[in-house]
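Sample pair:
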Amino acid sequence: MKRIVVPTKSGAEWKRLLAKPDLHWKPGKSAMSAAASWEAAGDRFPGELSAALEASKDPDLANLELLLAVPEREVELPGGLTTSHTDVMALARNDRGLVAMAVEAKVDEEFGPTLGEKRAAPSSGQADRLKYLHEVLQLEEPLPDPNTAKWLP
C-alpha cells in the first residue's frame, strides 16, 4: 500500500478504503457513520471524540488541534494473515506536543473479545500480536483485562 494521503470531499470517498466495502458500508453502521462524523467536523475532531478527550482530564489530550486524519489506515501486526484497518489514524498537537491516536468507531457493535477472553482461547498468532503490542507500548507489565482488577500473565 502506498503511503500517500489524498484529501476527501465527502464521506462517500471512504467506502473504497474498506477491506470489505459491501459488508461494512451501510447506513447507521460504524464505517459510514464515522465517515459522516469526521467529514462534518471538517478540520476538527468529531464532537463525541473531542468531548471524550476533554473528559479524560489528561493534559496531553486537552485542547488538541487536528493536523491529519487518515481513514482506514492499514496496520501490519505480527502473527496476522492480513493487515488490520484502523478506522481513523489521527495526528494532533497541543501546547504539550504531538499526539498520534488510532480511533476505532463503533455504533452498535461490540469491540470484540476482551484480553482475558483472547488469552483463554488464543487464535493462531495471538501471542505474537500481544507480545508485539507490549513491546511497542513499552509496558513493564502485561496489558490488563478490563474485566478484572488484577494484571494478567
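The longest strand covers residues 65-75.
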